[in-house]
């Protein structure tokens, strides 16, 4: 009998993170449910789909990413998949951005993913998968995203770099969502005219891509970034991002 696989998802309580968590539980994974602060309610709801172990902490603290990985791997017995989903979408005019904005965005969006990936890779056996949730703005800029877009681009290059160093034991891929209708992304519906497919995406559509990428059906895929954006990257979004 095959041992049940374990996935850790950061930023797991809402939006894309929750959809990924629900999908992986339905696919038969045990779940490490990582959030900024304790969320017993959502963890209990997800527990109805399978075995869930909740962990929490501020990913801006460099001690936290590795600790979350260790706690999940030790409690659930192994780690097969890491989804670095947590991130900050800092939106301001470039000349209003501060050193604190820069540091916190890169601390959470890039450094935390790197540190979690390091710890995960040390614990994964052959066949492990790391998925970094970047953004369409990994590939194209937008006014108001002078820090956010470079952070996501850095996470995209981290994906490619780790894919080289961790192969063939571990695959590393990125998923780059466009305008996805979540609680945080209130402007997603307003961007319909900018999206060739004419609508925002859903968290479940992003989760479906992640589910495929971590499956054996994607066993020859590594180092690539997959746009889930309805064609948004084919056009330039001229309106500034909303703060």
Q: What is the third-level CATH name, the topology? A: Rossmann fold
Instruction: Please tell me the total number of domains.
Output: 1
CATH class category name: Alpha Beta
Shape: globular
Main β-sheet, in a few words? Answer: 7 strands, parallel
Helix/strand order: EHEHEHEHEHEHE
Strand order within the widest beta sheet? 3-2-1-4-5-6-7
Helix content: 25-40%
SS field, number of helical segments: 6
CATH architecture: 3-Layer(aba) Sandwich
Q: What is the end-to-end distance? A: 51 Å
Number of strands: 7
What structural class should be given to the helix and strand makeup?
alpha/beta
Report on the architecture of this protein.
The protein is α/β, with parallel strands linked by helices. It has a single domain (6-234), classed as Rossmann fold, CATH 3.40.50.720. It has helices at residues 15-26, 40-47, 64-76, 99-123, 148-166, 203-213; strands at 6-10, 30-35, 52-56, 81-84, 128-133, 170-177, 225-228. It has a seven-stranded parallel sheet, with helices on both faces. The longest helix has 25 residues, at 99-123. It is globular. The N and C termini lie far apart (51 Å). The mean pLDDT is 95.
